[in-house]
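Morning, I've got a small favour to ask if you have a moment. I've been staring at a protein lately and its backbone has me curious. You're getting the sequence in one-letter code plus the fold written as tokens. I've dropped the whole record in just underneath, so have a look:
=====
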Amino acid sequence: MASSNPLVYVDESDPRIVYSDGWALYPSTVAYGGTLHFAVDAGTTASLTFNGTRVGVYGCGGDTNQYGWPEESFVVDGKTYLIRTDPTATPNTQFFNVSFFTSPALDPGEHTLVVTNINGTAPNRLWLDWFWFDAVVDTTSASPSASGNAAPTSSSGIPTSSSNGTNGTSAPLNTAVATSSSPASSSGVTSSSSHSQNLGAIIGGAVGGAMALLILGVLGAFCFFKRRSARYQRGAREVCTLGQSPYR
């Protein structure tokens, strides 16, 4: 029995992505997986064969002063669904996590997506970052290992865009951000609690010491006056014995 699985995320450097000649690998600290693939020649292709019901592509856009106005087509099983021109084009700002394409619902089964770079005039450059698809598996078997991949996230301070020129639904983002912040918050709570406990112990010790000194002082004064009173009474008895008033 087949069922739809959570999204499977495929980095553009994954061997499941098949590239034609003309693509180059580019390292990037803000890209998903730490790399991007780019093409400048018209007709270069990148394809993904998957077993699912929907597929999408994310990449980079903007900075038209350096990378021009790339144009690309998205074909699934031989049918062209979109010919796209960068909608995030700006003169000097490059955007990451830009949704290029989201397919409509597909029949469950194996499909092939082909991305083709159309505009090969300089300085146009097509940037690809990651793919995703809704997987279909047999419910009696284990889910594919790729479905456990972390969702791509936007790096702090990096411009992002979800514009894709289609009416499809974009793949969800920012899943990894909530779980990564959790350890820092937990550590802060532990540190604060420990500090409060130490402060309470110090105050308790100081108060206890002061009370002990006060009690010792009271006992010392009591003993002093008791001995003095005893001496006075003893002297008074001796005077009375001689027949004299002790108050004379």
Summary: The first helix runs from residue 64 to 67. Confidence is low (pLDDT under 50) at residues 143-148, 154-197, 236-248. DSSP finds two helices and ten strands in the chain.
